[in-house]
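Need a sequence for this fold. Nothing fancy.
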């Protein structure tokens, strides 16, 4: 049992400050000088002298003395040591730091009801550690579930009973026995899977745990049935490419131009995003040793120590980062949400993080247990995601956002204040061996959908030059960035040329989707470039020729933006190609 001893003996010497005119650390003549070789604190000044650290001083002492606990004569390096006297604790004669990344340790009992708090006691006389196989890497995540502890290593997933010990009798049957063991026997789940170095991907709902294993390019579910590779449900190639390309270590460089600089405060010509506390920097390519950013206020940067800069100097701030896999459970929609981020949110300007969904930056997608598949991509990039009761929240730039908000009915596709259209890509592949001519496209659903792209499979290759330049040809409806088929309102016009939202005077015509019996139809126009030997091509012919067609549809930007737009079914009329 630990005991408290009252010790009144300390190895303390009374050291006096020296007064001299030269070498004043605060730039004032005849101020007391802190002796060389002793630690000091620049943030404290006592009687004009640099304040003590970690000792004490009195500014009422006429002799400006300070007190420092010291055991060596004159405080010199390797000088003779005086007797330590009475010791209040035992000293390890061989103090050697250890990094046990595969071990667990627990303290004494904490019970708020009885007032017992031994959480600061780690008695070496008791068995208070438990280790897992070091060959499977470090422990990255712990999750307590009922009377079991889930231990996730880089290359292994384990479980162990908590506050009970499982033993077996001679017949092999399991029995329970009372024990003071906090963590019982550790056993591994079947399967060579772990959580790699991405504990941020872990999410739990009920008895289902979700996480990623970047080293094996998979997304996993841990349930009562053991480990299941849910990334294999139609997404093997996708996760192989995305997870293998996630950087383990990289460096962020942020450039800025100096407007002015005074001591350790630098004013930049403008506010620069992504400058973070803790960044080091260079001035015109010259490194500034031991200098880091300690505060940011708009375009004003405070650094750790004084630095000499001039107007128009170029600063480059740097800091290491790694790609992250942000996971969370959407309890409102019953989905596991995973955001694969090549750069974390703090390393990218906000404008690049919302509404783009660029695969070079991030991809956020969801897995649905009800269909056992990956259902959708999202255009938001969160810093953290979580659920509370029946609501789903995400965090971004230090702010909390509630999803599925129906405040005004116009919030769909709006993440972090920026609207992005909803898109769906699908394939027409009826009678795959038949060469077809797709003539029309139709859909059932709400008004406001348009066709962004309608393209055939690639035909060829074609031999286009005597040097062996092989090219692929395909039919396409439009150039990149334009709209293939406008929405019902987007393609409406009258005889004077007015278009929506201008008031249209009947009769009204449509060159996009037209509504018939609450179903929308449109003709497909060919906009392909000529291929070798082709006489009639492009808009001279109707429809798209090919064995199958890939179609991308999206919501327009004029029909009740942010409102509900359902899409129930899509079809196309085709004929056999001649």
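Here you go.
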């Amino acid at each position: 049992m630990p005991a408290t001893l009252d010790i009144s003996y300390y190895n303390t010497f009374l050291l006096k400050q020296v007064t001299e005119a030269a070498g004043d650390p605060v730039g004032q003549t005849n101020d007391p000088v802190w002796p060389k070789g002793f630690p000091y604190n620049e943030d404290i000044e006592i009687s004009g002298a640099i304040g003590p650290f970690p000792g004490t001083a009195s500014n009422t002492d006429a002799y400006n003395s300070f007190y420092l606990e010291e055991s060596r004569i004159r405080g010199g390096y390797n000088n003779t040591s005086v007797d330590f006297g009475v010791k209040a604790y035992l000293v390890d004669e061989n103090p050697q730091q250890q990094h046990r990344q595969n071990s667990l340790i627990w303290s004494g009992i904490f019970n708020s009801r009885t007032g017992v708090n031994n959480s600061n006691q780690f008695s070496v006389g008791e068995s208070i550690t438990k280790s897992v196989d070091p060959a499977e890497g470090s422990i990255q995540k712990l999750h307590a579930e009922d009377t079991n502890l889930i231990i996730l290593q880089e290359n292994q997933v384990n479980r162990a009973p908590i506050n009970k010990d499982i033993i077996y009798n001679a017949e092999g049957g399991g029995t329970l026995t009372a024990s003071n063991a906090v963590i019982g026997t550790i056993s591994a789940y079947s399967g060579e899977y772990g959580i790699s170095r991405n504990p941020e991907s872990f999410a739990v709902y009920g008895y289902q745990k979700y996480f990623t294993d970047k080293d094996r390019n998979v997304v996993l579910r841990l349930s009562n049935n053991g480990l299941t590779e849910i990334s294999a449900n139609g997404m093997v190639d996708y996760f192989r490419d995305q997870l293998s390309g996630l950087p383990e270590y990289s460096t962020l460089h942020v450039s800025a131009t100096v407007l002015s600089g005074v001591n350790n405060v630098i004013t930049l010509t403008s506010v620069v995003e992504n400058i973070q506390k803790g960044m080091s920097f260079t001035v015109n390519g010259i490194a500034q040793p031991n200098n880091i950013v300690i505060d940011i206020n708009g375009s004003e940067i405070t650094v750790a120590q004084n630095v000499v800069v001039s107007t128009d100097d170029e600063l480059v701030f740097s800091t290491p980062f790694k790609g992250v896999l942000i996971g969370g459970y959407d309890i409102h929609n019953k989905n596991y949400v995973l955001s694969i981020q090549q750069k974390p949110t703090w390393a990218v300007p906000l404008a690049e993080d919302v509404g783009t969904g660029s695969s070079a930056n991030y991809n956020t997608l969801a897995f649905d247990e009800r269909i056992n598949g990956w259902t959708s991509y999202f255009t938001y990039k969160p810093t953290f995601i979580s659920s509370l009761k029946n609501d789903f929240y995400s965090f971004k730039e230090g702010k909390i956002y509630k999803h599925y908000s129906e405040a005004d009915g116009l919030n769909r596709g709006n993440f972090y204040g920026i609207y992005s259209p909803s898109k769906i890509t699908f394939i027409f592949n009826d009678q795959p061996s038949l060469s077809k001519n797709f003539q029309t496209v139709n859909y059932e659903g709400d008004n406001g959908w348009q066709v962004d792209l309608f393209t055939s499979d690639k035909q060829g290759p074609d031999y286009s030059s005597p040097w062996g330049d092989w090219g692929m040809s395909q039919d396409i409806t439009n150039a990149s960035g334009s709209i293939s088929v406008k929405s019902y309102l987007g393609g409406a016009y009258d005889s004077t040329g007015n278009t929506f939202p201008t008031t249209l005077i009947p009769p009204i015509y449509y060159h996009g989707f037209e509504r018939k019996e609450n179903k929308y139809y449109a003709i497909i126009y060919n906009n392909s470039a000529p291929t070798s030997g082709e006489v009639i091509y492009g808009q001279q012919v109707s429809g798209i020729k090919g064995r199958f067609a890939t179609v991308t549809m999206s919501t327009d930007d004029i029909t009740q933006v942010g409102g509900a737009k359902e899409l129930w079914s899509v079809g196309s009329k085709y004929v056999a190609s001649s």
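For context: Residues 424-576 form one domain.
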